[in-house]
Amino acid sequence: MISVNDFRTGLTIEVDNGIWRVMDFQHVKPGKGAAFVRSKLRNLRNGAIQEKTFRAGEKVAKAQIDNRRMQYLYANGDQHVFMDNESYEQIELPAASIEYELKFLKENMEVQIMLYQSETLGVELPNTVELEVTETEPGIKGDTASGGTKPATLETGLIVQVPFFINQGDKLIINTTEASYVSRA
After folding, report:
1. What pTM was estimated for this model as a whole?
2. Distance from CA of residue 70 to its chain's centroid?
3. What are phi and psi of 23, to 5 degrees?
4. CATH classification of 2-62, choosing from 3.90.470.20, 2.30.30.30, 3.90.180.10, 3.20.20.70?
5. Cβ-count burial of 175 within 10 angstroms (0-12 exposed, 13-18 middle, 19+ buried)?
6. What's the CA gap between 105 and 80, in Å, rounded?
7. How would you write the pLDDT of the chain (185 residues) with one tens digit per residue?
8. Quick one: how far is CA 95 from the chain centroid?
């Protein structure tokens, strides 16, 4: 058991028969009444985000999440196959459970698979990934002075806003939490 006073971003807890990750929290001490902790939680089973308030000092169960390093192999219809790098064991995840993560996954890419007991919860992406631009309008000389952006389609199908100087075939660093352009690779 862990006290809600010890919350920190990224902590996984068990509440209301669900496995939740703390995304944000705030300790509140009103002038009148008891202190409480306001938190923003993400359900690791279905991705739902919920705001929940706990009384200060309340105890919740800490969920022990194991991360296994795996390699994304290929899509098999609606299933996506991952292989454990040590045991060569393969698991399949349905596309519906990793819909957001698929925008960044390329074949042979290494990711962390989150496991709770024997249940596979999902894929944890690295903070940034390198993807190639497959389609964008050509940049026009002199356009960079305005500091504007244009849409670019990447090799996974993701569309991000990029500066005018980016061309088709360029490799870009993409932030996976915000699905945004960071820099050229």
Report:
1. 0.72
2. 16
3. -95, -35
4. 2.30.30.30
5. middle
6. 10
7. 888 888 888 888 998 888 888 888 999 898 888 899 999 998 888 778 899 999 988 899 998 888 889 999 998 888 999 999 889 899 888 888 888 888 899 989 999 998 888 888 888 888 899 999 999 888 666 655 567 788 999 999 999 999 888 888 999 999 988 889 998 88
8. 15
